[in-house]
Amino acid sequence: MSPVGIGIIGAGVISDTYLEHLGSFPDVEVLAVGDLVPERARAQADKHGVPRAGTAEDVLADPDVQVIANLTIPAAHTEVSSRAIASGKHVWTEKPVGLDRESSAALLRAAASAGLRVGSAPDTVLGPGFQTAKRVIARGDIGRPLFAQTSMQWQGPELFHPSPAFLFAQGAGPLLDMGPYYMSALISLLGPVARVGALGLKGQEERSIQVGPQAGTTFPVEVPSTISVLTAFEGGQQAQSLLSFDSPLARHGVVEIHGTEGSLVLPDPNRFEGRIALARPLTSATDGGPIDQEWIEIEQEGVVAGRGTGLLDMVRAIAENRPHVASGELGYHVLDVLLSAEESAASGAFVEVESTVAPVPAVPVDFDPFARTLD
Fold it and tell me: What are the two backbone dihedrals, phi and then psi, of residue 11, each rounded to the nearest 5 degrees?
């Protein structure tokens, strides 16, 4: 088999890392880049050695493209993905899979009817950091998982982004912008969510752009810029998660799983690798004295790649007739959980999550994105 042809729609900032990594995977080949601004698509294609460039329509019509990587803005995700399915192509979409349940569910139904696959970011759950931690939990090193804690907090993206207003608009905020990383990690480890409760607040009603040509310009904050989420999983575990663009204290990438026999620190779910450490229960403690927690550092296993690994796994899964890890169904359940948290913050009541998802497959230790497997 020749490499599977990939077409990218959306030539924004994130396309660089996709083009870099997909270009290094022998099982796939990026053949075309499309964008609302064809000149931008051509610039990215030339930069990364991609032979064809043009509009989204050009990419969708390309007979050699078998998989679309949808890197458009979130508001366009389901529209572009649905057009790809209608064109007979599999889809990998950036997170979230959509911004509402109805169009996202319709996308998955259309793909299933057409016998096509949908994959959804984040694919950091395929990274060796997360997968090593998943194996630690699966073999019982922390006993029975009981609860989890996650945190992502800082002052907000207006500190670096020249046009940050969309990150505080409906369909965004820390919940839908950063929440997919943390919720995908928790669901991949602990299984589907049954219900959620949340509290949200706005630190400011307006924000000011700090960098770029619009510096000093203000824009409205439409959604909670801080949200605290309580999650109850179908398996009985619990989690508490903080997502904030209001914190002077910058702290992100906090993911901890606590069990009957130990606590595990996981890498930042926005990264493919990182520190993994296990704390065992104390056997004794002096009253009033210091508690010296012993940490067991765990060596990461596997090959580190980057964005696009989930698309590659989907391509291989199609050839091997197996489920892929970062599936559209996982992306939909994550979206359903996050929208339920948004609804809970607005109503003040716990919200039952209607969707569920099958157990998320693990990645074998010998998974190598840089190997050729489709010969």
Answer: -110, 35
